[in-house]
Amino acid sequence: MTVIAVTGHMDLTEESVPLVREALVALLGRYVEQGLTGVSCIAKGADALFAEAVLSLGGQLIVVVPSQDYREAKVKPDYVAEFDRLHQAAAEVTVMPYAEANREAYEAANSELLRRAGRLVAVWDGQPGNGRGGTADTVAEARTIGLPVEVVWPEGACRKG
Q1: C-alpha radius of gyration, the chain, whole number
Q2: pLDDT tens digits for the chain (161 residues)?
Q3: Domain carrying residue 145
């Protein structure tokens, strides 16, 4: 079985979503025959696209929720239905032992992703992070512990703003 975690940007442009989705399906498709399990925090953007790709390929999804209040505090109304659908589709859900969603909770959730996985997929533009617990930090942590990292950033992908 191949267990792959994801980290990535939440602020993908609308035009980038199909490009990233296609790249993720192509990448993850290489692991289907070995038994694919994806580990994701299912945040909007890269995490959700990864989770959808895993499920579309017949893989199992493990969800790591950063805090007890994450859905209520951080999931925007336009994403609640998708979040709930992915949450319900998960073979396993782990809620980190934090009451409130904050940097500490995100960092702990990212560490849990890496602890569970044999490799990391990073939907990442390669830019340095803008604070602790983001994509760049998770990639750095994975590389520090020797976890293989595959960066997905298809030509034409970009972030909002």
Answers
A1: 14
A2: 999 999 999 999 999 999 999 999 999 999 999 999 999 999 999 999 999 999 999 999 999 999 999 999 999 999 999 999 999 999 999 999 999 999 999 999 999 999 999 999 999 999 988 766 789 999 999 999 999 999 999 999 999 98
A3: 2-152
Structural tokens at position 70:
């994450």
Start-to-end Cα distance in the chain = 39
**Domain presence at residue 67:** yes
pTM: 0.96
Q: The domain that contains 33 carries what CATH number?
A: 3.40.50.450
Alpha carbon distance 51, 41 (integer Å) = 9
- Hey, is 119 helix, strand or coil? strand
